[in-house]
Amino acid sequence: MKTFGCFLILLVLAAISVPAGAQKSSSTAPNLVELEKMAGRFASTPLRVDTANLSAGDRHALVKLVQAARILDQVFMKQLWSGNADLYARLQKDATPLGRARLRYFWLNKGPWSDIDEYRAFLPGVPHRKLPGANFYSADMSKDDFERWVAGIPATDQEQAKGFFTVLRWQDKKVGSLAVVPYSEEYKAELSHAASLLREAADLTGNSSLRKFLSLRADAFLSNDYYESDLAWMDLDAPLDVTIGPYETYNDELFGYKAAFEAYINLRDDEETSKLASFTQHLQEIEDSLPIDPKYRNPKLGAAAPIRVVDEIISAGDGAHGVQTTAYNLPNDERIVQQKGSKRVMLKNVQEAKFRTVLVPIAMRTLSKHAMIDVSFSSFFTHTLAHELMHGLGPHQITVDGRSTSPRAELKELYSAIEEAKADVTGLFALQYMMDHASEMKLAKILPSDDAAQRQLYTTFLASSFRSLRFGLNDAHGKGMAVQFNYLLDHAAFVENGDGTFGVDMTKIKSAVQDLDHDLLTIEAEGNYAAAKDLLDNLGVIRPSLKKTFAKLSEIPTDIEPVFVTADSIDPPTQNAPATKKATKRSRKP
Ligand code: ZN
């Protein structure tokens, strides 16, 4: 699963009864001005990564990995639509201003449909919306066609038909039979090329866990069996942190069966990784101090799921269209998750790019000048790490009326919003706790704890709350944030100034955070559905007064368009996308 920070775009699932591919868009495709406006929602942002500390072997391996990643751009475009490769080739030849604008927005979406506009077409002569089954199924195959056919085949064949790594094509349309084609066949030319690049990279790196993963993944590209290489990915611990293969199933809106190819070629951030390791050592102590009735605390926490903090050198394919991924949790294969759990990878430089491009401009319009000084990326990222760790703390196995159960089972559809709020607030609590005990906990070097650092933590959190709220209450993070924002405002910990800007009252915020954390943790510990509903009904709302604030944010970009300057300098893109783009001009008022 991937996350976009709080930029989660809820993609409306289209009605899928319409025979796919039947309708073409009319001539209402956006003109140059409209297209530039659409693309302008993504601020062009260079992603630079300092690779100077890599070994010579890893530096050579990196070239091969960037090349392999670029092949997956091509595979993904094929997966998205059968017409994509031809269309892309045509667009590259069109040198008119409109042609250039179309190419840029096509590359940003890796297809002719705009991700953040419910996949509406922005080019003429293409289906008016992305096909729900993308190109994983024959374009005119309906959901019913598949279900009728699959019910009549043996169970082992069904498993293949519904598997992650196959496409379905008509075998005999008259009788309704389908052929199951493995990815290793369907994308044979591209995957063979990518596999040989991965093998070259495996030979060049000096890191044994990377060598093992790359060799097994190269095998998987050819054999279509990804199991062993997924296991090796869980064990991967190397300066070059690589994720490459078919993973997420979001693009298969028909069934959610089929995995799309993507790549993330990253550099491990050793400083953040060691910070994370120090925090992890203190998790039990934090659990033992949580602001809840001691009987609800967990006397023995399980092992924390692995988290890697990295900088992205290049992303490709499904990992590089529309709203950019800030973190991902893989693999999705339940067999691996059962056996080894899953691993979370956090893309620090992508988060930083979004912070500068989106969060800082939001803060400039919502915070007082005085508070603005305390908006800091370091605080933002440290809280993001704490948020992830805090999902593992607090009540998980609970007893309600003598039954052994879980907060998720008891709180049902309300659980996600409560749990996201809990992770945020417990994250604030935990960081404050560690700041208060920094010297005993030997955290002084990695966690600044002076007054300025404390102000930065809460002020940055206030600024980021507007970013989450802006995206609405349909998302668990947005709803959870509304609860926190309103609670802290009602307890005078967040303050609205006369001029409509906001700030933090440092004399009130710490106790307000503790009290809210107490309420959230107790709701989970008791599996108290009624209390959760009450809290969300009262506080999980956008109050009318905030509408004014949102109106001030309408010009701020939705997301970034990454320019992979480090990857491009290592391996200049040949016929790929409009190479280095000039930075988008936009006027920002302070
Ligand atoms: Zn979360």
Keywords for this entry:
590 residues, 24 helices, binds zinc ion, 6-stranded mixed beta sheet, globular, disordered C terminus
The dominant shape is globular
- Number of strand elements: 16
Strand order, biggest sheet?
A: 1-10-11-9-8-7
- Beta-strand level of the residues, as a percent range? 5-15%
Average pLDDT reading: 91
**Termini separation (Å)?**
36 Å
Structural class: alpha+beta
Give structural notes:
- With 590 residues, the protein is an alpha+beta fold.
- It has a domain of 199 residues.
- It is built from 24 helices and 16 strands.
- A six-stranded mixed β-sheet has the order 1-10-11-9-8-7.
- Strand 3 and strand 4 form a beta hairpin.
- Helix 1 packs parallel to helix 4, helix 8 runs antiparallel to helix 9 and helix 19 packs across helix 20.
- It is globular.
- The C terminus is likely disordered.
- The structure holds zinc ion.
What is the element layout, followed by pairings?
Layout lengths: L1 E2 L28 H8 L2 E5 L9 H25 L3 H10 L3 H13 L3 E2 L5 E2 L21 H9 L3 H7 L4 E7 L4 E6 H4 L1 H17 L3 H16 L3 H9 L4 E7 L14 E8 L1 H12 L1 H7 L17 E11 L9 E4 L3 H7 L2 E5 H19 L2 H4 L4 H14 L7 E3 L2 E3 L1 H5 L3 H22 L14 H20 L5 H15 L3 E3 L5 E3 L4 H18 L2 H11 L4 H8 L7 E5 L1 H6 L20
Parallel strand pairs: 2-16, 9-11
Antiparallel strand pairs: 1-10, 3-4, 5-6, 7-8, 8-9, 10-11, 12-13, 14-15
Helix pairs in contact: 1-4, 2-8, 3-4, 8-9, 9-10, 14-19, 16-18, 16-19, 18-20, 18-21, 19-20, 20-22
The chain binds zinc ion.
The site of zinc ion has 4 residues, from helix 18.
